[in-house]
Design goal:
There is one protein chain. The protein is mainly α. The chain has one domain: Alpha-Beta Complex (Cytochrome C3). It is built from 8 helices and 2 strands, in the order ααββαααααα. It is globular and about 55 Å long. It starts with a helix and ends in a 19-residue tail after the last helix.
């Protein structure tokens, strides 16, 4: 019963989206997305969603699924094929910001099926840098992320980098 209802909801949603004028579909999509899961070390990334939409043929090139559709990713479909229409496509909806937190590890330990699911940072980087490499987009860390002083301290970079050994050829006080 629930599967039929979910399929019906998904079908109506897809039909409504495909029959809606292009302008109204565009209005429902965000122009910009704030990526701030690493804001303690880096400035927030203002992801230009509008620009990226013009570069791809289908939303599924970036998203495993789209709002109002069933899960399409082959790895997810094995178990989630009857999960119903997807209410949200945000990466953080499935990928944990802190994949090694106690809560996330408890969840992974309950089932072997999510053991290989990337954390949020890994999901972003696999998707973004993979496409950027193919399409000639920026791939350097600070091309997209401006590191804060806290990030420099954490990574021991810039003013926090260890002093270079003096050019006398001796190491470790020898």
């Amino acid at each position: 019963m629930y599967a039929v209802r979910n399929w019906l909801i998904a079908g109506i949603t897809i039909l409504a989206l495909t029959m809606a004028p292009a302008g109204s579909r565009a209005k429902s999509l965000p122009d910009s997305i704030k990526l701030d899961s690493l804001v303690n070390l880096y400035e927030r990334v203002d992801f230009n969603h509008s620009k990226h939409i013009t570069l791809v043929k289908d939303c599924a090139e970036c998203h495993h699924h789209t709002t109002g559709t069933l899960v399409q990713d082959a790895n997810c479909v094995r178990c989630h094929k009857n999960s119903g229409a997807t209410p949200v496509v945000a990466c953080k909806g499935c990928h944990a910001t802190q994949p090694f937190s106690a809560a996330a590890l408890r969840e992974k330990n309950r089932t072997a099926y999510h053991m290989d699911k990337l954390g949020l940072k890994g999901a972003y980087h696999q998707n973004c840098t993979g496409c950027h490499s193919k399409m000639g987009g920026p791939t350097g860390c600070q091309d997209c992320h401006t590191r804060k002083k806290q990030g420099d301290a954490f990574y021991r970079a810039a003013a926090y980098a260890p002093p270079q050994a003096r050019g006398n050829g001796k190491q470790h006080g020898h």
